[in-house]
Amino acid sequence: MGTLKWIQQWYFEQIDGEWEHQFGMCIETLDNPGWRVKISIENTDVKDKTFEDINIERNEKDWIHCKIEYDKEGNDSHFFGNGGQMNLGEILDIFKLWVEK
Asked: Do residues 35 and 82 make contact, with C-beta atoms less than 8 angstroms apart?
């Protein structure tokens, strides 16, 4: 299954009548230019899964930074992925590979 279809399926599997009203995912552009991906992992099977930060700097247009962030109380957690203008697919692949591990 391709990554985009997989992301759609993962989102669908989180929907329970409540999760989708508080949590979700966002893909937006950055002004440097590039991409920002924010995926809520709160109340999912991967909330407490270990993630090693990823920082890849190939050049000024080809870079990726991915991490998990928690709020101060540890009640709201997100996967964040930022990358260059051609790195959106790679960011989503990183999330997919991490979830599937």
From this structure: yes
